[in-house]
């Protein structure tokens, strides 16, 4: 890296923030408040507890927690202890949890008894049978050879489980010299975390990033004009890159105050915007749709919002983004993925409305973006869609212990082949259109499901929609639409199809419409189309005819 940028260690950020902002409020959660000095002290306590536990440099430690203050303290403490953190989705169950623990070589798992309705402890005991009969300091499982410890945060007393509050007490015996020695051995080029992709399709892969995500977040915060006077509302899960960076890290590097919720609840979020004077929030169109509907049911004072990061570009997201600009505040759009981190492109506060709601932002410093023909690798002309390729300092180091998958994703010149489809507009802004693997091939015609979804969402009786492919003997595949209606609607599947005929090309018209009450989603609100494809195969017994 060039001399102009000094590499820093992630675990040092809380103390740097405490020295700059001291008694300014850093974090709010369910009526509790911490200043920057208090937050840094909590990170110090957590780091000492990790050392008392015996966590060594380079060890993999899983964080399997819902949003709570300990998540924030631990994400920095693990880095300060030189450990590699493994953020784990709390919606995963035993088969998926076991896979991640084994594939990553995790030695310790820090969790809690429950995450909403999910009993995490019960799931963990499926993965760790007989834990109550083992020494909690040295668990042993043949199928998880690296695993040694299960730690529970909160009021959780079970045999074989170490309690976090007891470890915090033990950490008091760790002196300043031991902390300094550990910190001195940390290299900012070392892995910081292995973040597993959300898994909308297939098994998740572990994306490895080092401490350079600090630069990524600082550059993005600068473009968004985030300062110590901002109040950031974080309702997405911290185990996801979006919230990890836009909430916890952006706060610590700018001095902004973070208002953290345990889960996303539109009513609670609107109440907190009014109560805490939130000036900035972020999420996907799914979340903003819920926020808009909740605001329509009961209006709150949201004038404190100066901007919101709403990742746009897809046709289906445009009407939601437009409405959010009308009801709440001017939004900012962006593009990123776990493999190249969050801030590959971002609009400016001064970008025009089209650039903010119909694009996915302008390339960020330190990144190059191309849109290429995936068959030839040649750059597409402006406004012609192709596969998005990204190169820059924020591209992942690797998929953890998956060299073949890594080689497929990153070519010899350092370009990450994202698998996303998009265009580069005449004005230089990127527009993300969806996943290439989601594109349908109907009788030789390419059908972008996002286009059909955007059309259907214009119908006043349709609340949400997802279009997937269904195998067809003659046409290869045909569109099937899963539709969630607004509460008062009695629209029928046949009426949905009739609405399409004559308005969009015949090959784009869904052959079947399946009504649903809710969609299967990832923890960040992304619809799991792989699940919908399976449901279509189960619910439509005969191959449809054209």
Strand order of the largest sheet: 2-1-13-12-14-15-16
Helix content: 25-40%
- Shape by Cα distribution: globular
* Helix/strand structural class: alpha/beta
Beta content? 15-25%
DSSP strand count: 29
Average per-residue pLDDT, rounded, comes to 93
Gyration radius over CA: 24 Å
Largest sheet composition: 7 strands, mixed
Counting DSSP H or I runs of 4 or more residues, the number of helices is 17
Uncertain ranges: none
Straight-line N-to-C gap? 57 Å
Write the layout of secondary structure elements.
Elements: H1 13-21, E1 25-29, E2 32-35, H2 36-53, E3 60-63, H3 69-80, E4 84-87, H4 94-104, E5 108-112, E6 114-115, E7 118-119, H5 120-127, E8 149-153, E9 162-163, H6 164-170, H7 176-184, E10 191-196, E11 206-210, H8 213-223, E12 231-234, H9 241-254, E13 257-260, H10 266-276, E14 280-283, H11 285-297, E15 307-310, H12 318-327, E16 331-332, E17 334-337, E18 341-346, H13 353-357, E19 362-363, E20 367-372, E21 386-392, E22 398-399, H14 403-409, E23 416-424, E24 430-435, E25 440-442, E26 445-447, H15 449-457, E27 462-472, E28 476-485, H16 493-500, E29 512-515, H17 529-539
Parallel strand pairs: 1-13, 3-4, 3-5, 5-8, 8-9, 12-13, 12-14, 14-15, 15-16, 28-29
Antiparallel strand pairs: 1-2, 6-7, 10-11, 11-22, 17-18, 18-19, 20-21, 21-23, 23-24, 25-26, 27-28
Helix pairs in contact: 1-2, 2-3, 2-6, 4-5, 8-9, 10-11, 11-12
